[in-house]
Amino acid sequence: MIDHFRVGDEEPEADQIDDTGREDAELAEIEALFNERAEALGDAYPFELSDSGAEICYLPDEVGDPAQAYMMCLFVSANRRLPGGWHSDLNDLKVRLTQRIIQLVATVAMAGLARGPAVSVGWPRQHDGTILEILARAAGMGSCVIPRNEPNTRVARTGDKDAGIDILAWENVVAPQTTPGHIYLGQVASGNRWRDKSVWNDKGTFQEGYVDSAGTRNWNGATIIPFVRRDPDDRTREDYHHGKVLDRHSLPRYFAVGIALSEEGIPMDEIENIAELTRWNSDMISELS
User: What is the 3-state secondary structure (H, E, C) of 83-110?
Assistant: First the structure.
């Protein structure tokens, strides 16, 4: 970045001292951003600053599953910012992302957010079956949400595959607690217009169309995105509109919690497919190399 800055600088050489000051300020800003990400992500951030502070170094040997989730977010963000979107040579990777990879990461992360089981509802999903069959399977896994016997055709759309809901997750309740825990509905959004995709837009249709008993009033929403949100005021408004937003600085940590819960025996969809995430990142790196 500094070399690019120098090449494009039209200032005369007499201003070299001022240029050095500006370069130091640029490096200080980069270091501040680096430290912010390292603090937010912990072990899920697979980079380090060089001793001189002039380079950010990738550490491929230290990339565990949460860091793989971060790398996926990084690649998606970069490709979404390209003029015209994803390059045509990467279309196959884009399809794999939207149909498998981001749903995989989001499902496990939603389990981490809810601190309990999670099922994938979004299409295409891991398990075949109707929405009602998925809700029945979730009830068998401990969800307090009881599905209808048949869809409510007054509100449910004919042939609807997911009712606009990508993930259902719920708090794992253990003794002596007897009341149902929190329910979480997740919406996955990998495009730039994610702010318009709130799960609250579909919650009413989902409940009225497919749910016989909500089990609890504690229903929460979340939107999962691969992007970074920097403006605190924007984050406050977005969290209010979406319920909660899991972005590039928080998604990997919830993903790590989901993995840990699975290791403790908490059931969740997609957990056995995490190797697909690593393969997707490897294929992306190969294509970009």
Answer: CCCCCHHHHHHHHHHHHHHHHHHHHHHH
